[in-house]
Design goal:
Blueprint (H helix, E strand, L loop, with lengths): L8 E7 L6 H13 L4 E6 L14 H11 L5 E4 L1 H5 L4 H11 L4 E7 L12 H7 L2 E4 L12 H5 L21 E4 L8 H9 L1
Length: about 200
């Protein structure tokens, strides 16, 4: 895990990044700025249980590609989940909190993941473990409020103007952050490479 100090605000941005692209960088930049983060951990996962059966590039390749596009020095590309044999986000968040007391973490995800968030292993536990920042993605702006997660935790939604203090809030707490959006997607990039 990257080194952090107590009282830092740190964002956790996890994904398979298969491959990483400028849209991921844009989400990271928006999160750093809007959430007033000291660091953002770009967590390259060994695999995604919800995407089993899909072809995935080797972990070392995805790390190298992520490092090449994550140019802000506050972004720390890491793949610590592989070392701890962690498979599910709920376990990742519990591990991170246990090993870094006194650090204020926030989970970051693109709005395109919100529709399926209720299919994640122990998704309610995730929302009760750490504040969540949902970053706008193309095609997801208007549909996010109809998601199971948004309806279930409607009472815990924080106005976007308070995003800079989200990391200090007691979960459940989440916000939706608007901003520039990239049309790039890993799925489309993989499809183009095959074509």
């Amino acid at each position: 895990m990257p080194h952090v100090e107590k009282r830092m605000q740190v964002g956790l941005f996890g994904g398979s990044f298969n491959p990483p692209h400028a849209g991921h960088s844009l989400v990271a930049e928006i999160a750093l700025r809007s959430l007033r983060l000291d660091q953002l951990w770009w967590i390259v996962t060994p695999g995604n249980p919800l995407k089993a059966g899909r072809e995935i590039a080797p972990l070392a390749e995805r790390i190298a590609l992520s490092e090449a596009i994550a140019t802000d020095p506050r972004i720390k590309v890491t793949a610590f989940e592989a070392a701890y044999s962690v498979r599910y986000t709920a376990d990742t968040l519990a591990l991170v909190r246990a090993r870094n007391p006194g650090v204020d973490f926030v989970w970051i995800m693109g709005a395109d993941n919100l529709a399926d968030f209720h299919r994640w292993q122990r998704w309610r536990e995730i929302a009760l473990t750490m504040p969540i920042a949902v970053i706008d993605r193309p095609g997801s702006t208007l549909s996010f409020m109809s998601s199971v997660m948004a309806k279930t935790f409607d009472h815990a939604r924080v106005p976007e103007r308070q995003a800079g203090t989200l990391a200090h809030m007691r979960p459940p707490a989440w916000t939706f952050i608007h901003g520039p959006r990239s049309l790039l997607s890993s799925t489309a990039i993989r499809a183009a490479r095959k074509g």
